[in-house]
Amino acid sequence: MREPKKSGSGKKLWRRGIWRIIQTAAIVLVLTFIVREFMFTNYIVYGQSMLPTIKDGERIIVNKIGYELTEPDRFDLIIFHADEDSDYIKRIIGLPGDELYYEADTLYVNGESVEEDFLETISVNGSDVFTDDFTLENLTDEHTVPEGHVFVLGDNRKNSVDSRQIGFIPTDEIVGRANITFWPPQNIRFID
């Protein structure tokens, strides 16, 4: 003959099950927060300033791991806080201490011409000039990129709000480096 179940044991199992669900949910939330805050996050790109590298509406994964601890590299694609409400994606052109200028559609860094293989030459409104001539001094009243700052440009030079308009970007405003596009699925790729 079986012994009758105690009425409290069913409630204990139910409470234990609920407690495990709460613990699991809390662990998932904490891990999600850590990953998004300190490791990786995703962004939707709005606008055409990074064409043809990144298209309007593409979703990208941004690597935040250790980026604030390392020196940025020339030509990194970065996400940064442009103001309180907006984050921008642009390409680093000038690093701290660099003297740079454009002449005849050629980038010069510290007096040496630098190839920009990622750019596609296109004719805009009948003009073959892709990047208008400028010097740092004309744009910013500075001869070189200040310490703790970078100079950024969009890949679509004729349609980009970048350091030519908003000035130098403080390195502590950089969120991270764009690594991968993941949406739409046919456009999944690593970003150079």
TrEMBL record:
<dbReference type="GO" id="GO:0006465">
    <property type="term" value="P:signal peptide processing"/>
</dbReference>
<keyword id="KW-1133">Transmembrane helix</keyword>
<dbReference type="GO" id="GO:0009003">
    <property type="term" value="F:signal peptidase activity"/>
</dbReference>
<feature type="active site">
    <location>
        <position position="49"/>
    </location>
</feature>
<feature type="active site">
    <location>
        <position position="90"/>
    </location>
</feature>
<keyword id="KW-0812">Transmembrane</keyword>
<dbReference type="Pfam" id="PF10502">
    <property type="entry name" value="Peptidase_S26"/>
</dbReference>
<dbReference type="InterPro" id="IPR019533">
    <property type="entry name" value="Peptidase_S26"/>
</dbReference>
<keyword id="KW-0645">Protease</keyword>
<comment type="similarity">
    <text>Belongs to the peptidase S26 family.</text>
</comment>
<dbReference type="GO" id="GO:0005886">
    <property type="term" value="C:plasma membrane"/>
</dbReference>
<protein>
    <recommendedName>
        <fullName>Signal peptidase I</fullName>
        <ecNumber>3.4.21.89</ecNumber>
    </recommendedName>
</protein>
<feature type="domain" description="Peptidase S26">
    <location>
        <begin position="19"/>
        <end position="183"/>
    </location>
</feature>
<dbReference type="InterPro" id="IPR019758">
    <property type="entry name" value="Pept_S26A_signal_pept_1_CS"/>
</dbReference>
<dbReference type="GO" id="GO:0004252">
    <property type="term" value="F:serine-type endopeptidase activity"/>
</dbReference>
<dbReference type="InterPro" id="IPR000223">
    <property type="entry name" value="Pept_S26A_signal_pept_1"/>
</dbReference>
<dbReference type="InterPro" id="IPR019757">
    <property type="entry name" value="Pept_S26A_signal_pept_1_Lys-AS"/>
</dbReference>
<keyword id="KW-0472">Membrane</keyword>
<feature type="transmembrane region" description="Helical">
    <location>
        <begin position="21"/>
        <end position="46"/>
    </location>
</feature>
<keyword id="KW-0378">Hydrolase</keyword>
<dbReference type="InterPro" id="IPR036286">
    <property type="entry name" value="LexA/Signal_pep-like_sf"/>
</dbReference>
